[in-house]
Please model this.
Amino acid sequence: MSEARVLSDAPWLRSGPAARVLKLLNGDGEEARVIGGAVRNALLGIPLGDIDIATTALPEEVVRRARVAGIKCVPTGIDHGTVTLVVESHPFEVTTLREDTETFGRKAKVAFGRDWVRDAERRDFTINGLSVDAGGVVHDHVGGLADIEAKRVRFIGDPGQRIAEDYLRILRFFRMHAAYGVGEPDRAGYLACIDGRAGLSTLSAERVRMEMLKLLVAEGAAVALQAMADAGLLLPVFGGVTYSGPFAAMIAAEREMGLPPSAVRRLAALTVAVTEDAKRVSARLRLSNAEAKTLDSMGHRWWRLATSDDARARRLLYRLGEDAYRDRLMLAWARAGGVGDGAPRWHDLATLPQRWTAPKFPLKAADFISRGIAQGPALGHVLALAEDAWLAAGFPLDPSAIAAVADQAAARFARDHRL
Model:
């Protein structure tokens, strides 16, 4: 199986950093092509992302040519044939053609080669097995062009074998389908993922996190995740119940608000009903500190927003800040069903930060020292009492109202502590 097509709209092949790398590596008996995702995206007319290059030249020859040309070269994976060339601040991974001689998970033993067909056949999916040369000719040895046209994600060769080589390909199958496929996932690949699901337990949390966060924001995420749930693949990933309804509702609410897709917001909708869920998912995926904090905040008593009036919403916005308020509100909205009869009210709550800015708490430590409160822990306590009272009073800024709040807080503190 071999097919070629000319990529007509690819100015980056004629000039610029990528063209310079291809020119450097072509000639004197060697050939270089752009491979993988950049070719796929160029054919689909979407942004390229990283541009990876394959070459018949051995790593030592790649390094030699780069040094002669004055191009920065980083040996990022030279034992496996990969070096990174940096041209005009753009990094390009350059990998010598390879073929697997033994496979055992991610640690396949490879030999360098010069056969473009064998190199393509060792990749994961047909739409990632394409390459394009400096002249714009797309080379297809695995049926990727037809699958791009059909918007179909298929493993190259035997799906079970591809998965056994790296079980992360189970998650990649659904992530790629969410991004580039339509309809039901490829049947053979789907069944192979089910057969190989025990292998998910061998994957590092960091690799699982990377794939799942990408999947969550893909265009077809809801369909792909439902297929994973039907196949029993979400429980091994998250270790708990998942909620397809709130996930779909979160997508609808984001669109209603004109918000860009958020992986963490969508993760909360899919997995979090209470803060214990947030802690489990954060640990299981080893989320970053910021991601874990966001997930935990979203799960904290989100249900109170379902019956929140404007006054309570303002107090919460003041306490949380705009971003955390919006995220928790979006989770409550999603769990309430998303866009529907109650959407106008949820929309009003979600746009509160654009309509109202919380004033700054007007009282300071000096206001209570002058009322006889000693410096130390007592001062922090009375300040907290005063802030609560100020919020409950509706954020008054009139000097007499502020003084009354301070007097009441100081008196309450004195009464409680018998000063």
Notes: Residues 399-417 form the longest helix (19 residues). DSSP finds 22 helices and ten strands in the chain. The two ends are 89 Å apart (CA to CA). The mean pLDDT is 92.
